[in-house]
Specification:
The complex is a heterodimer of chains A (about 350) and B (about 625). Chain A has about 350 residues and is an alpha/beta fold. In chain A, about 30% of the residues lie in helices and about 20% in strands. The chains are: A alpha/beta (about 350), B alpha/beta (about 625). β2 of chain A pairs parallel with β17 of chain B, so a sheet runs across the interface. The structure holds thiamine diphosphate (TPP), iron/sulfur cluster (SF4) and magnesium ion.
């Protein structure tokens, strides 16, 4: 069932294919700190969904606990949301997705929520290739509990508390790659131009689409000695390439120099046009990704952009062969075998 | 020497080594008795181990239909030298001890008051078979054949059983029947008349079936319309999801596409399992998980979320002996309190407590209706004894006209009609609000599900008054639940003793047998079986109408008694605990002895209550 309602709108506001203005994709007013990176990510999600002409109510927003996990309230107000418990969003998302394979699932989490308390659930969602977009709003600290170091904080990085972090960081991107993730990207909340097409591609991917977004916490971790501050990230950011996301319906018009572009066709026919900055890099080659990540690390840079995609990805429903019809729409006639089958079962038990 | 003589009333125990294929042979014996129309109640007593440790299988044969564990062994089949010393000691005076006399019996194991039946099982197998695996497997079948002769059983029943069991693998029928005959003939030749125990054909089984509670539960989930199962393996609950998978795999395949009308996820742990259940139920599917005590402990945080955010969930807890890892392969009823009040904050959960596999089936199916009607977790508490052992139980039945109760869910049309949607509004005055499934309507009915406090319109709030109003509504919903959960079973038309006895779950078999026995001794007790929490008024009335009430449980601390006292505001003095917590199913003998303690001089006085008469 589709509901496209003609409604009065200001003639100057752009509308998408569904006739919605961007307003239809907004949520409640954010209560995060002014300048918090997380708000920019919400903005990018709104923009991407608007541009993709997604029906907002076909999206389910899921999160754990943290400043980052609060953000689903601030986008897609016409979508159902589930702010679950700390670190356990992946299991909620798994169950929700099993119930209805026809919706779009957006999971938002924090670095604490994912890399510490929720690590167990995160890695298993990756390896099951659950069909969802999973965004980590990575600020290297626990914002909501006032700035403690998180497991993604770099050695020596200092939050407002002033003590350098002593432990090795967990790099969620390499971890996801190791676990066989089928879509891996990294971005920066301050780079909307890169983030919006990445989100669009992630939403079109069939399988687990992971985006690690560095998202500075202005209140606790934007210091001169933090490696997750706006300044540090801007100085050290390096991109694998520039990406355009071209929905199926549109003609590909982007100009590019031959040899530098690579098209990746998504399952729905849309195309990711990837303009390489480095000739060697191929986002469908896992080994190339490892090399590029390693090179960047050695230089002390943060590699962003689309890092890896498997266009042939088989999502969980395909792997376990569940019905094409969403399970939640099945009724008694499809679910209950009835007395006759029971008679046969009884007979076998005598 | 004294010899136990008995027809259709005895206990036989098999002492085996884990992993040697004894289970199916022992099962064959029990089923043969059952097919002869005589009630049986088999119990596996097994170690937490896959191979090599002692394991026992105890079968009570009782033509009157007493199915509880009796205690004491009339006939021991011992094919495990490891446990022989202990096994010999367990035999009742005048009982029998069947052993493998290929090796001479250790003199220390010889008792003067026990009848020994030596059969050279190993020798026979060495002679008959060359393959070592066959030697091991057929040894078990040979002693079953021997028992058939000793107990004068109908050999044709055994032959038919073998044919049924190996349907489709016909090659195996003849060798198995041959093995049965080897044992049978050996006894006919060497021990024509040593045994006073008989199994005689009766008609006391009716159309009942032999089934374990876990399989029945899995099947109940198929019939109840569950589409999403998430679980993490743990004894003794594993076979619940295995049962679901087995039957769903047969009965829930889409004929056109061959695809599955269900999804099973083996989760990374129990936290994830219950999270998946909650996620699926939130999104409109019927979902469940099965676990045991350690899993319930892990699920606490999520259960609180589901209670507070009002998301349905069905959780099957097959209880085992705690605390911690406890005795993981022994039974207990010790998760009552953690289940009733799981999670921090003020929480209460609906509990269903079946006593038989038949009830496991019906209650599981009902659990989905209840969870969706009440929008809250429903926890079904079974135990290892019920879940993993076969029980004689009523044939399963299903009303084909039955529609699932999906609870209060607004459709898109409803949303267009009703005006402003309030997810947590008590529109009907029963404490149960309306929900919407995600994706219902493009502009109406969306809301944010959260574990934080919120107002009637699901908006976040830290206003204490609003918070308290919501907590009070949840209590109102709890009152509604009292009218929906399965009523307790009263075992008499009229309560006419001064003394009552309350029990639940697998204690039923032994308590009812104990009540019969006590009545013969002159102690009359009114009996009530609790089947659910919250407690209905019938529970309160039953307790109120008795001077004192025994509460029988298989745990140390009297958890149900505590729950009764706490929820009904009762005086603890009136509730007398009768507790068994050694990990073995409770026996009638135990119940009787504990009740008798309360009645000094019980053997003489008739205790039918008369007004003004006091016993203590
Ligand atoms: C079980 C549990 N433990 C601890 C907390 C407290 N807590 C809330 S948010 C949070 C950390 C959040 O960090 P992150 O996920 O990085 O989100 P951020 O606030 O940085 O966006 C913690 C520890 C909790 N809510 N639940
Ligand atoms: S504390 Fe940090 S993460 Fe939280 S809202 Fe403020 S800036 Fe953002
Ligand atoms: Mg953080």
């Amino acid at each position: 069932m589709t509901y496209i309602k003609p409604s009065f709108r200001h003639p100057e506001l752009p509308v998408n294919d569904l006739g919605y203005t961007k307003k239809a994709y907004e949520g409640a007013i954010s209560t995060l700190c002014a300048g918090c990176g997380h708000d920019s990510i919400s903005g990018a999600i709104i923009q991407a969904c608007f541009e993709l002409s997604i029906e907002p109510h076909r999206v389910a927003k899921l999160s754990g606990i943290g400043c980052s996990s609060k953000t689903p309230t601030y986008f897609l107000g016409n979508s159902h949301g589930f702010n679950s418990v700390h670190g356990r969003m992946p299991s909620i998302a798994t169950g929700a997705n099993m119930a209805n394979r026809d919706m779009i699932y957006i999971g938002v989490s924090g670095d604490g929520d994912t890399a510490s308390i929720g690590m167990g659930q995160f890695v298993h969602a990756v390896r099951r290739n659950l069909n969802m977009m999973y965004v980590v709003e990575n600020n290297g600290c626990y914002g909501l509990t006032k700035g403690q170091d998180s497991a993604t904080a770099d050695i020596g990085s200092q939050t407002k508390s002033g003590a350098p972090n002593l432990y090795e960081p967990i790099d969620l991107v390499t971890l996801a790659l190791d676990l066989g993730a089928t879509f891996v990207a990294r971005s920066f909340s301050g780079d909307k131009e890169q983030l919006v097409p990445l989100i669009k591609a992630a939403l079109s991917h069939r399988g687990f689409a992971f985006i690690d977004v560095i998202s500075p916490c202005v209140t606790f971790n934007n210091t001169g000695k933090s490696t997750k501050s706006y300044d540090f990230v801007r100085e050290h950011i390096e991109a694998t390439g520039k990406m355009d996301f071209v929905p199926m319906k549109e003609e590909i018009t982007t100009e590019y120099e031959p040899g530098n572009a690579q098209d990746v066709t998504m399952h729905d026919g849309s195309v990711m046009r990837f303009l390489k900055l480095d000739q060697e890099f191929d986002p469908t080659d896992r080994r190339a990704t490892y090399n590029a990540l390693q090179d960047a690390k050695e230089k002390g840079d943060i590699l962003t952009g689309l890092l890896y995609v498997d266009p042939a990805s088989q999502e969980l429903h395909e792997v376990i062969q569940t019905s094409q019809k969403p399970l939640r729409t099945l009724t008694e006639s499809e679910l209950c075998p009835g007395q006759k089958a029971l008679d046969a079962i009884n007979a076998g038990l005598r | 020497m004294r010899r136990i003589d008995s027809v259709n009333d005895f206990v036989i125990k098999f002492a085996n080594v884990n992993g040697t294929g004894s289970a199916s042979a022992n099962n064959m014996f029990a089923k043969a008795v059952f097919r002869m129309g005589v009630p049986v109640s088999p119990k596996n007593i097994f170690p937490s181990n896959i191979q090599g440790l002692p394991t026992w299988y105890e079968v009570r044969v009782n033509e009157k239909g007493y199915l509880g564990r009796r205690g004491g062994v009339d006939f021991m089949v011992c094919v495990n030298p490891q446990s022989m010393a202990k096994d010999v000691q367990e035999v009742l005076p005048g009982g029998y001890f069947l052993y493998d006399n290929t090796k001479q019996l250790d003199l220390r194991y010889v008792r003067q008051d026990v009848n020994y039946i030596g059969i050279p099982l190993t020798d026979i197998c060495l002679r008959e078979y060359t393959d070592p695996r066959k030697r091991q497997l057929f040894k078990n079948i040979i002693y079953v054949g021997a028992l058939a002769s000793l107990f004068k059983m109908d050999f044709a029943v055994l032959k038919n059983l073998v044919s049924d069991q190996f349907e489709g693998k016909e090659k195996l029928i003849a060798p198995n029947i041959h093995a049965l005959e080897l044992g049978y003939q050996y006894v006919e030749t060497h021990y024509p008349d040593v045994c006073g125990i008989r199994v005689e054909t009766r008609d006391n089984v009716g159309d009942r079936i032999l089934l374990d509670g876990n399989t029945a539960t899995g099947l109940g989930a198929v019939y109840g319309g569950a589409t999403v199962a998430a679980w993490y393996p743990i004894t003794p609950s594993t076979s619940v999801v295995e049962g679901f998978e087995k039957y769903a795999g047969r009965l829930r395949i889409d004929p056109a596409t061959g695809r599955k009308n269900f999804a099973i996820i083996q989760a990374e742990d129990e936290l994830a399992a219950i999270g998946m259940v909650i996620g699926a139920a939130w999104n409109g599917a019927r979902s469940f998980t099965a676990t045991s005590g350690p899993g319930v402990s892990l699920m606490n945080e999520f259960l609180g979320l589901a209670y507070f955010a009002e998301v349905p969930a069905v959780l099957i807890d097959v209880q085992r002996t705690g605390p911690s890892t406890g005795m993981p392969t022994r039974t207990q009823q010790s998760d009552i309190l953690i289940s009733a009040y799981a999670s921090h904050g003020d929480t209460k959960h609906v509990l269903l407590i079946p006593s038989t596999p038949h009830e496991c089936f019906t209650m599981t199916a009902d659990a989905f209706d209840l969870a969706e009607r009440l929008q809250t977790p429903v926890i079904m508490l079974t135990d290892l004894d019920l879940g993993m052992n076969d029980h004689m139980t009523e044939a399963l039945s299903w009303d084909d006209s039955r529609q699932y109760d999906r609870g209060k869910v607004y459709t898109a049309e409803d949303l267009d009609r009703i005006g402003r949607f309030g997810r947590y509004l008590d529109s009907d005055g029963d404490g149960i609000p309306y929900r919407t499934y995600p994706g219902t309507h493009p502009t109406k009915g969306s809301f944010f599900t959260r574990g934080t406090s919120r107002d009637e319109y699901a908006a976040y709030t830290e206003d204490g008054t609003v918070y308290a109003r919501n907590m009070d509504r949840l209590l109102k919903k709890w009152d509604t639940a009292k009218t929906l959960v399965p009523a307790p079973v009263l075992h008499q038309d009229r309560n006419d003793s001064k003394y009552g006895i309350i029990f639940y779950g697998t204690s039923q078999f032994s308590v009812l047998e104990a009540c019969d026995g006590l009545l013969e001794e002159g102690i009359a007790l009114d009996a009530m079986r609790i089947r659910s929490f919250p407690f209905s008024n019938t529970v309160r009335d039953f307790i109120d109408s008795h001077e004192a009430v025994f509460v029988v449980e298989q745990n140390r601390d009297g958890q149900m008694r505590t729950l009764l006292i706490n929820e009904l505001g009762l005086s603890p003095d009136r509730l007398i605990p009768v507790l068994n917590y050694d990990g073995m199913p409770i026996t009638a003998t135990w119940v009787k002895s504990k009740v008798r303690e309360r009645f000094p001089g019980h053997n003489v006085t008739t205790l039918h209550a008369k007004a003004g008469e006091s016993i203590e």
